[in-house]
Specification:
399 residues, alpha/beta, Enolase-like, domain 1, TIM Barrel, 10-stranded mixed sheet, 33% helix, 23% strand
Length: 399
């Protein structure tokens, strides 16, 4: 029986950089009165497993990449303590399972993790998400409550899986634009009230002028058909500035919630884009930082307020890295939306980050189906993602 959910994670080198710059973390549990129970648990086993993640429909191309298909195999990390407690989560970019196992096994959970601060030792960043889940299970608290939020702060969640499916050949012919409306209706029925439309068909898959016109046509059609929904657009860096201006003129008058990565970010081009948006009357957010982000350059763009929303993937930044970054973004009046494409596992984890820390303007939703994962009691309510109140992240690994 396949288990599905109506919406839909991970540590990395970036998190390690944040952590290594903060030696106070090495003493975190000395000042964390909630960590006591973690002292009684020692990591006995750490295992990498594969969980098959499927999409409820075929996902096509974006501006730079070919068909995404029906799903993929996600690598997850599972931790087991000497007392039988378990925690799991998507594994991070970083050290191998063998290297992490040799370091982590035999250590108390409290040596690796602090409920108030997250990961203590950056060497263990591969299992950052799993440690959050494990600690929540030991303390019998959902992660957001373990982080100090008595009641979760909820936010909007957009459908992030509306791709160039009009170009996907079914029965030897492209599906056509009607399939985009059908997909939006499918997501609307699940509870989404925001749609992120991929644009940039003229970058690789159609003649440039025809691609721009198709992007314009679909944007207008979705906005007209779903007037009670927000429209987000994502170019995946596939639009030159001058062609993107043509697209914007073609949809002038449509309210955009945000524009994501229209082209590779530079100070010159984003300064120009801000002026174009002002001239055309668009009041929208500019979101960036997903694709191979240079964090120092992103910070410069944020300080100049050339971007409004920080997008670095939860898998690259890590959950602890995002816990460190969020207060810094707040100080600069920069919003957050950790990138989550690929898996509902990431979407659900971000719901707890948002629930505890706020400042997330919307969450990327990826509806998934799996025989290997029970996604838990997450659900959409009036377009907002409500996190599970079960211990940890409230999801079960079935493999």
């Amino acid at each position: 029986m396949q288990r599905r959910n109506f919406i839909q994670t991970i540590s990395g080198a970036t998190a390690a950089a944040y952590l290594s710059a903060n030696p106070i973390l090495s003493h975190a549990n000395n000042m964390d009165s909630t960590a006591g129970d973690l002292d009684y648990h020692t990591i006995e086993k750490i295992t990498a497993k594969k969980a098959r993640i499927n999409y409820p429909r075929f996902v096509g191309k974006n501006a730079i990449r070919g068909n995404h298909g029906w799903g993929y195999d996600e690598t997850v990390c599972e931790l087991i303590t000497n007392k039988g407690a378990k925690g799991w989560g998507v594994s991070c970019r970083g050290k191998s399972e063998k290297e992490i196992s040799e370091y982590v096994v035999g250590k108390k959970v409290s040596e690796l993790f602090s409920p108030k601060l997250g990961l203590i030792d950056p060497i263990a960043s591969w299992c950052d998400i799993a440690l959050h889940d494990l600690a929540g299970n030991i303390l019998n608290k959902p992660v957001y409550e373990m982080m100090g939020a008595a009641q979760p702060e909820t936010t909007l969640c957009y459908s992030g899986m509306i791709y160039f499916d009009d170009l996907t050949p079914f029965y030897n012919k492209p599906a056509g634009i009607d399939i985009i409306l059908k997909e939006c209706q499918f997501d609307y029925d699940l509870g989404y009230r925001q749609f992120k439309l991929k644009i940039g068909r003229g970058n690789k898959w159609m003649p440039k002028d025809a691609g721009i016109q198709r992007d314009i046509e679909i944007t207008k059609l979705v906005a007209k058909t779903f007037p009670d929904c927000d429209i987000l657009i994502d170019g995946n860096d596939g639009y030159p500035v001058n062609e993107f201006e043509v697209y914007l003129k073609g949809i002038q008058g449509i309210k955009l919630f945000w524009i994501e990565e229209p082209f590779r970010e530079t100070i010159e081009d984003y300064t120009r884009l801000k002026l174009i948006l002002k001239d055309l009357g668009f009041k929208t957010l500019l979101a960036d930082g997903e694709a191979a982000p240079d964090q120092e350059f992103l910070r410069k763009l944020e300080e100049m307020h050339l971007i409004d929303v920080h997008l670095t993937d939860i898998q690259d930044m890590g959950f602890t890295g995002w816990r460190k970054l969020m207060p810094e973004l707040k100080k600069m009046n920069i919003l957050a939306s950790p990138h989550a494409w690929g898996s509902q596992l990431k979407t659900n984890v971000i719901a707890h980050l948002t629930a505890a820390l706020g400042n997330t303007v919307t969450i990327e939703g990826v509806t998934c189906i799996s025989n290997d994962v029970d996604f838990g009691s997450y659900h959409l309510e009036k377009g907002k993602l409500i996190p599970s109140s079960a211990p940890g992240f409230g999801m079960k690994l079935l493999v």
